[in-house]
Automatic annotation (TrEMBL):
This is Methyltransferase type 11 domain-containing protein. It comes from Massilia psychrophila. Residues 30-111 form the Methyltransferase type domain. CDD domains: AdoMet_MTases (cd02440). GO terms for molecular function: S-adenosylmethionine-dependent methyltransferase activity. It holds the Pfam family Methyltransf_11.
Length: 226
């Protein structure tokens, strides 16, 4: 069954944009972070022989797709195994200390093309959550890395950028004071519905309990700020 978020306007636009950037005649591809197989099946529909990889072996029941369990930081493939390495909505979740290793692995197994999709200049101070288990702060949607052109060029220094595209836009930003006030209020507007667990203790993030009057006052102070 297709996940509801796949039907949102921004998700449809994101996938369409990625598909439009596919190189012609990419005979073989690995889909890094395949999850539900939505992208893997879209690639297969375009005649690509697809290997779908995730930390847990994907359960994609499609004879055109080979499902494997694997880690982007240590890919069990020979150099240049795939004409296309497809990696979208993954690198922002990789622990920062392993990010360079993961990017080097993607480049290593790509014979010709890398197609990378990441959030652009995301303000990771927005929509933070507070873990009810350990009390520590989490970034939105488990995103621990921020990207722009310079950062991507550094991470894929041995590659030539052939095309860049952008989907959607936002004007939302935060600041030091708002971030501190929101944290003091318990980060009530965080992304608690996300699948990703706490980055500190791996517990599932739970919606905060009812807030006190003091919490609500802090919240209003934050929302009234610049």
């Amino acid at each position: 069954m297709q996940a509801d978020w796949r039907l949102t306007e921004i998700e449809r636009a994101r996938v369409a944009d990625l598909m439009a950037m596919l190189p012609p005649q990419a005979g073989t591809a690995v889909d890094i972070g395949a999850r539900d197989g939505f992208i893997s099946m879209a690639l297969a529909d375009r005649g690509v022989s697809v290997t779908a990889l995730d930390l847990e072996q994907p359960a994609i029941h499609d004879p055109r797709i080979t499902c494997v369990k694997g880690d982007a930081t240590a890919l069990d493939f020979a150099d240049g195994s795939f004409e296309l390495v497809f990696c979208a909505e993954v690198l922002e979740h990789i622990p920062s200390v392993l990010l360079e290793t993961a990017c080097a692995e993607l480049a290593r197994v790509a014979r010709r093309h890398l197609l990378i999709g990441v959030p652009y200049k995301q303000d990771l101070r927005l929509d933070r959550s507070t873990c009810s288990n350990c009390g520590k702060t989490n970034p939105p949607w488990g995103h621990v890395n921020r990207f722009d052109e310079k950062r991507l060029s550094e991470l894929f220094a041995g590659c030539r950028i052939a095309q860049t595209s952008f989907v959607g836009q936002t004007s939302e930003v935060s600041n030091f004071l708002s971030t501190r006030l929101m944290a003091a209020a318990g980060n009530p507007y965080g992304t608690y519905g996300q699948d990703e667990p706490c980055i500190h203790c791996s517990a599932a993030l739970a919606t905060p309990v009812a807030r006190t009057l003091a919490d609500r006052c802090l919240d209003q102070s934050c929302r009234a700020g610049p």
